[in-house]
Write a structure and sequence with these properties.
The complex is a heterotrimer of chains A (475), B (613) and C (274). Chain A is built from 14 helices and ten strands. Chain A is α+β, with helices and mostly antiparallel strands and 475 residues long. Among the domains of chain A are: 80 residues, Thrombin, subunit H (Beta Barrel); 125 residues, Cytochrome c-like domain (Cytochrome Bc1 Complex, Chain D, domain 2, Orthogonal Bundle). In chain A, α4 packs across α7 and α6 crosses α7. With 613 residues, chain B is mainly α. Chain B folds into two domains: 236 residues, Cytochrome C Oxidase, Chain A; 240 residues, Cytochrome c oxidase-like, subunit I domain (Cytochrome C Oxidase, Chain A). Chain B is 60% helix and 0% strand. Chain B is built from 18 helices and no strands. In chain C, β1 and β2 form a beta hairpin. Chain C is 42% helix and 20% strand. The termini of chain C are far apart. Chain C has two domains: 84 residues; 141 residues, Sandwich (Immunoglobulin-like). A five-stranded mixed beta sheet of chain C has the order 3-2-1-5-8. In chain C, strands 4-10-9-6-7 form a five-stranded mixed beta sheet. Chain C is elongated. With 274 residues, chain C is an alpha+beta fold. Classes of the chains: A alpha+beta (475), B mainly alpha (613), C alpha+beta (274). Chains B and C meet through α4, α12, α13, α14 and α16 of B and α1, α2, α3, β7 and β9 of C.
Chain lengths: 475, 613, 274
Amino acid sequence: MSVRWQSLIVGLACALAGCGGDGSQMRFVENSTLAKPVHRKARAVVKTTLEEHFGAPLNSVAWLELPVKYGRAEGKITAIDDQTLSVEFNAETMDLTGFDAAEFAGTELLLTSGTNQEKAIPLASFDGKTKTFEMSSLAVVPAVGDQFVAGGNVLKHGRKLYARHCQHCHGVSGDGDGPTAKYLNPRPRDYRQGKFKFTSTAGPAGKATRDDLRRILGQGIPGTYMPAFVPMLKDGELTAIIEYVRWLAMRGEVEWQLLGQFKDEYASDRAKKEAKESGGKESEIEKQIDSQLKEFVKSGLSALVQEVAGDLADKWIAAEEEGAAIIPELARVADSPESRKRGKDLFYGKVANCVNCHGLAAKGNGAQTEDVAKNLRTGELYPTPGLFDDWDQPVKPRDLTRGIYRGGRRPIDIYRRITQGIKGTPMPGAPKTIKSDEIWDLVNFVLSIPFESPAPKTASAHSIAGQSGEKGHAN
Amino acid sequence: MSASGVALEHGHDHEHAHGAPGHHELSFIKKYVFSTDHKMIGMQFLFTTLLMMMVGGTLALGVRWQVAFPWTSMPLFGPLFAESGGQISPEFYTMLFTMHATVMIFLVIIPVLAGAFGNFLIPLMIGADDMAFPVLNMLSYWFMIPAIGCFALSFYFGGAAAGWTAYPLLADLRAAAPSSGSAQTFWLMGVTFVGVSSMMGSVNYMTTIINMRAPGMTLFRMPLTIWAMLITAILQAFALPVLTAAGFMQLFDRLDFGGPLEGIHTVFFIPSGLVVNNADPTVGGGQPLLWQHLFWFYSHPAVYIMLLPAMGMVSDMLACMCRKPVFGYKPMVFSMSAIAGLGFIVWGHHMFISGMNPALGMTFMLSTIMIALPSAVKVFNWIGTIWGGRLQFNTVTLNCAAFISMFIVGGLSGIFMAAVPVDIYFHDTYMIVAHFHYIVFGTTLFGVFGAIQFWYPKMFGRKMDETLGKWHFLLSFVGFNGAFFPMHMLGIAGFPRRYADPYIHPYLEHLMPLNQFITVSAIIMGFGQFFLLYNFGTSWFRGEKVGRNPWGANGLEWFAPSPPGHGNFDIPPVCYRGPYEYSNPNHPDEDHWMQTDPPKGKKKPEGDAGAHS
Amino acid sequence: MRKFWCGFFIFWPIAAIIYSAVSPQFNWWFPGPSVTELGQRIDNLFYLILIIVTAVFIGTQVALGYCLWRASHNKEERAWFTHGSHNLEVIWSVVPSVILLFLALYQMDVWALYRVQSFFPKEAREAPVAEVTARQFEWRIRYPGLDEHGVPKKLHLKPQPDDLYTVNDLHVPIGRPVMINLRSDDVQHSFFLPHLRIKQDAIPGQIIPIWFKPERPGNFDLACAELCGWGHYKMRAQLIVEREVEFQAYLQKLRADQNYDGHATPSAVAKKDE
């Protein structure tokens, strides 16, 4: 009997140990919707490219082409003495307040310039007073003046936090398809097109700034399941998550664009189609595709990747530049009945035509929501009436009577929504012909809707004053 | 000790000779599947509940893993989440603890007591040949199967994830809980089926106990097990309809067939103007608190349904193991009745901070605190029973002693919760988790472990292995206390229940090591249950063969053959005295005096004489 | 073996007592002393019950262990034949019932102060500081707007145009009774302030007042204590208890932030608001 028990214990222990892994199987899910029409060999090329430049979730690669702060601290090497590196941190180095010097120990210092660019140096310790690093090996010898990022690896930190707080909705690769996602309305954001809805930058192509992401993380998005993460996350943690999300978004966009490049030339049904047209053998054409692809990988791929990444980097950098955030030309027009009245006329007028989607009662049920919309990317009609966003999810125009503003309730937030639109959705930016003060009128009107809900039906009920906001979100 | 057992062994050859019906051979299906024999039904319940206990235990370990090692890959469950490196999603965690509670309460504790032991013991202990309504009895088991099926379907659709209490609107609005779609609806149907099953059982038990007692078996000669079963059946009969009604109300609120069928769309529990998951604001006029009242009106008495039978069985076992009458038999009966009676007017203590009228809080505090009184009386009586006894430490005794010891802890921790102001702080923290696990696991399940050992010979004619039984007890007891005692401290630290990742709250960060200790203890306890299963399975074939009365006990069930044939008694039993005449000085031959032994000078019953001839 | 098992049943309560006694050292205890006086009284009630319960726990467990020991080492040929004692039953019914009744009645006034509205401090009852709305999975907080002197207006049950909003960040002044209106937007939640010993469910469709008088400044945790869905554990917020001046300044800042239009300085916004 004792043998039996022993074997049972051993078996159980094995089962526990065997299954309780360290999560090393975690992997990025590839972009299935866009990948499907692309030839599988071309898909494999995209996959290897991504692995080369981004790595895996648990083993990320720092690709310096992209404007991502991989490390906590950036700077320049000022002196080298045997194993000791004296450094000088850049002014815009990430927040070092409350920073534990011990965090550098056991991490790597990544060189970002010089002959050893993109090489990593393992670190043994950091002395905050003298600003010196102790190298733990001399395999790579940097030169004085080399730029570096170091410390704690923000991206890894971000990945951990992302896994804990974000992943179950936004997915491992940021595709907005985590296990919880399927229950949520609206669906969690899919970052991989690099589109973020509520930004301060110009629409529709502007990227999100770090501050935009920080604001959304901190305040949440009212009316959705995106919760506010402050005070749950501290400043440094937000920083790390933001960098990781930016990195995921860039990774997804590179994937998206490469697949887009391959889509026409290397369609998945190309062999079949050509065989039909020319009467040749399918296998022959497959071979042809193979060699053509191999040729391209040798000659043109790196240039293409550089170009895609360069473009991407420019856009993300542009979002961070001074003046990228939209600031109204004029200060807010004083909120008065007259201003609201002007705003109201705009709302119902032909130029702004808000009423088309938001409806006569501003309840988000305008005429447009009854029509069948056209998918602008494929040119096909959507199967059901209503509006759809760039992720092919149905969206409803905001019900403005409820006083819930997803992008924020500050006047400037509403102003930006109206002038720049909401990225990735049918909400357009206001025509340039509408002047800043008129936009403010509109803002004043919109902000007054929950309290004095506009009369339904015709414009004959224009006298809004005196109507009480019974239908506000009070109940 | 088993003198009388040996004496009665002669009767073995004459099995069936005197049994009422049951001469004819039954087909396999009739005998083992759709059996109307109360013993077979009891056994079916027992096997089902033991199986479900493994399911519920596995779910519990899943819960514990997440709390101790959040977001790391779980053993067993981990591979399901390979893509995210074994990291589970929070709604999966919510499902785990909901289904753990559901399985343990509705498919283990309630059916193991009333279903398994109630069925097996009631006719045997009162000297009846079967239940009053055998077919109803069979149906009460077979209604468990659709219940299990519904819960399985609930799993299939993602698992109910609104807690076992299914509070609206989380459970009521389909949009509110992620997997709430069909899973919660099937969950409700499962609970309803369990209710129907219990209801059939309880009608049967009441009728049987009241009408089918053997000659001489007056109410105050009934063993405490039977008293407990009777009171439990009454509790069930009066409380269950409320839950069933509430379940249907929630079902009607939820049902949405989609398409042209639409739903029923009642709004019993849905107030107006709620915005869930970006849907349109609700239109209603319902009151979510109504569900809590209805639910706890059943579920608080249900706690006693989960406890009283074990109390009765422990009283019987303890008296036998101490060779001494139960101390204060009538006070025991009265205190059980008092618990049952008060049990109906304490449900509000689950709702102290729910926002109900605060004046009710005071009323319910008074009644709740008073319910501690009969419980205290019972504890004193059990200790009194042991006092002066001649005790033998076998597995049964150990489990009974653990039962008392655990009941003291569970009862005392209940006082903190009964006191409203203190409950403000402890409500929905781990203090509650610790408290009710001490009651339904520590108390009831140790009672059940003892009862399995004690009545196993009657079920299979063989004894269970003592060494294995003691190892099982030791691992269960150590694991149990290691797992649940520290939870009191978690509760005092304000550790809320049902948190998938509590450590995002700064005041809970330092409690992770304590939780890891708890989880390791829980794994030990879970591991210990394999000893029980192994012991249960192998003793069936290899256990020591025993006669009718291996423990030298007094009850009528020990007068029947082991295992009893169809119709139970080969000799129709007649009851001459109470069930606890151990070490009676008027009966110097033996230290027990069976209820069926005729007094001196009286003629032995005919059947008995026949057996001895 | 008898000795082992008797020892076993005597050992475990001792272990439990020792464990409980050292728990505060390891911080497995209340998260600090209560910030409110009422919370302190709840703690005191807890300790009162704890003392009684510990005494009963020791008493009964020792009695159980001793009885087990006596019974398993019984040298007599037969057990003591008794069906019980009427006097003993009376004693052990009456004594606990007196203690229990005392416990129940002794708690009433704390409960009344905590929860019965007519017992609330008048100043708190008349001027709720904020409305806290729980929703999946965050706490949305609404303060009344400020008048021309920067003094908070009366909090209306329905939102007003100049209300101030924050999320997961509840600021209250120190040293005066503060009342919060609690409500829920979707499912049931529970407003749990462990450091203040405050807990109250938020019931959809109801507005439930809670009051407390914080005596100590600081940053305290606010958590949800009633299962509200998959993100139940995520509902972390903070309660910041600060001096009246800081609290007013906080409201001013909130107003300035909320009216930010890309140009205005906070004071200009304040003017334009009127």
